[in-house]
């Protein structure tokens, strides 16, 4: 039999239950003919029978939800009425359930009697400790009946079920958008209000969500709390760990029908397809430049904002990317973590090992599609193609050099046409050598020659070890120190050596300060 109460009847009953002591006025015992259990109260007996039969006689006339137990039904009604009859006498906060008030009262005397035997963390409630222990044990007792995914907390299962049901009970009263979780609605509303209540104490940056602030702070601290239990690699965000773990699995269900490459994640697959389509859906709202990935756009924006959140704790130099900071720190420590497995030589970057190995194998993976000539590095191939016979129709009448376009030839010609004045005997401010491409002037013809290469892209100085080419001889000389390990610049105070003069200059600031 269905019991349906009006709101006024329910509210009267709730008031009666709250104001009067709960006295058992029903002395008669009731026995369940299914399981044999006995009950002293009629309501408890009826609720038990409903549980046995699966019947839910208590119907909410506000939302249509049904309940087996009268107490659950009454508690549910308070969601609609907003009533919170249980008040904390310390802070005045009110609650819909007495048990919630009891748990709340523990926060005032800082009472946390429940301790985790594994990590020592303390909790005010035994249920919270039970949930916490599952983190260590990996226990996930709550399983989804639809997809079998398991969870450590019941509330997480409830949130998850809304993926299958499509239920989104929390609506934004500004734009009408709906959400499956109340917390997501609260975060969403800050888009409309512009509120960013979470502040970084290190750099002052503000955020609309606490989780975003937590992730941001790890940029400063370098903390990577999420560890892969297969290879030990650590990550700053749990989502990155989840993606990484799939790299250990051989399963790659997402296949690109253009090039045949397969992927473990749908998101990676979607990003990859943009290589073929040329789609760049992420636009910089400052300059309009488009990007294939949202991460690339975020890094790009630092050009406009000047943000450099990664600081070297040795010399104070700041960088826009963590990878740049890691590479920079090796100038202080001298660390060379990448080694050649053939000769044992070590390098600061993995790319340098790749270039170096070609000196052992004579590998030349870069091919000229015109004549088939092979090269160890793309820079040498590009330089070779710029002087390739038959493919550079623009000739210099003075030296015979050829160029692939007229603009490059125009930039080259001033080398021969300008009057070669001895700079030592020229007036102090005289700059007789002009660049026809941009109008910039120079005191010496050699300076003009080097400058013109910024227009032509010419890099005539290749490294004979790795093949990388440079526009200036000085750039090549500095580069070779990577291979030789030479550090010709010495600090007069502490004796530390450096491969570049600029690194010595930065280092000396430590002593000055």
Strand content: 5-15%
Mean pLDDT score, rounded?
Answer: 75
Radius of gyration: 36 Å
Measured distance between first and last alpha carbons = 85 Å
CATH class of the domain at 366-471: Alpha Beta
| Arrangement of strands in the largest sheet | 1-2
Largest sheet: 2 strands, antiparallel
Specify the overall morphology: elongated
Oligomer description = single chain
Low-pLDDT ranges: 1-11, 13-26, 419-428
Q: In DSSP terms, counting alpha (H) and pi (I) runs of 4 or more, how many helices?
A: 19
**CATH architectural type of the domain at 366-471:** 2-Layer Sandwich
CATH topology of the domain at 366-471: Double Stranded RNA Binding Domain
Percent helix, as a range, is: 25-40%
Give the total of beta strands.
34
CATH homologous superfamily descriptor of the domain at 366-471 = Classic Zinc Finger
């Amino acid at each position: 039999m269905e019991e349906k109460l009006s709101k006024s009847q329910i509210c009267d009953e709730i008031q009666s239950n709250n104001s009067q002591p709960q006295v058992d006025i029903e002395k008669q015992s009731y026995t369940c003919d299914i399981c044999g259990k006995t009950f002293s109260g009629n309501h408890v007996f009826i609720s038990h029978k409903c549980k046995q039969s699966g019947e839910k006689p208590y119907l909410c006339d506000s939302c249509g939800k049904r309940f087996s137990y009268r107490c659950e039904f009454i508690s549910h009604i308070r969601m609609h009425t907003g009533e919170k009859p249980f008040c904390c006498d310390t802070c005045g906060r009110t609650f819909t359930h007495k048990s919630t008030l009891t748990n709340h009262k523990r926060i005032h005397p800082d009472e946390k009697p429940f301790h985790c035997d594994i990590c020592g963390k303390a909790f005010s409630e035994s249920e919270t400790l039970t949930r916490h222990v599952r983190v260590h044990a990996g226990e996930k007792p709550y399983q989804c009946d639809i997809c079998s995914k398991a969870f450590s907390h019941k509330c997480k299962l409830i949130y998850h079920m809304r993926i299958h049901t499509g239920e989104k009970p929390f609506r934004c009263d500004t734009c009408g958008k709906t959400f499956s979780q109340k917390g997501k609605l609260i975060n969403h509303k800050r888009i409309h209000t512009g509120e960013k209540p979470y502040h970084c104490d290190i750099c002052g940056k503000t955020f609309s969500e606490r989780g975003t602030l937590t992730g941001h702070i790890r940029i400063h601290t370098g903390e990577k709390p999420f560890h892969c239990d297969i290879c030990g690699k650590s990550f700053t965000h749990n989502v990155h760990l989840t993606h990484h773990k799939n790299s250990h699995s051989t399963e790659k269900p997402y296949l690109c029908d253009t090039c045949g490459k397969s992927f473990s994640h749908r998101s990676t697959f979607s990003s990859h397809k943009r290589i073929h389509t040329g789609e760049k859906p992420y636009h910089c709202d400052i300059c309009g430049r488009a990007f294939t990935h949202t991460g690339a756009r975020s890094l790009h924006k630092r050009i406009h904002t000047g943000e450099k959140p990664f600081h070297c704790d040795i010399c104070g130099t700041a960088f826009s990317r963590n990878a740049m900071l890691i590479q920079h720190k090796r100038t202080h420590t001298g660390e060379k973590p990448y080694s050649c497995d053939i000769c044992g030589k070590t390098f600061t970057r993995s790319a340098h090992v790749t270039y170096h190995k070609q000196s052992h194998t004579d590998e030349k993976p870069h091919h000229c599609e015109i004549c088939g000539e092979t090269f160890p590095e793309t820079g040498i191939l590009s330089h070779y193609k710029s002087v390739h016979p038959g493919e550079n129709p623009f000739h210099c009448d003075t030296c015979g050099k050829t160029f692939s376009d007229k603009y490059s030839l125009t930039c080259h010609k001033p080398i021969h046409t300008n009057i070669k004045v001895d700079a030592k005997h020229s007036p102090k401010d005289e700059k007789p050598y002009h660049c026809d491409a941009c109008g910039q002037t120079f005191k010496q013809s050699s300076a003009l020659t080097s400058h013109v290469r910024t227009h032509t892209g010419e890099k005539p100085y290749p490294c004979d070890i790795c093949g990388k080419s440079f526009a200036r001889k000085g750039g090549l000389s500095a580069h070779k120190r990577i291979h030789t390990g030479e550090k010709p610049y010495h600090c007069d105070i502490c004796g530390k050596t450096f491969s570049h003069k600029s690194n010595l200059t930065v280092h000396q600031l430590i002593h000055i300060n």
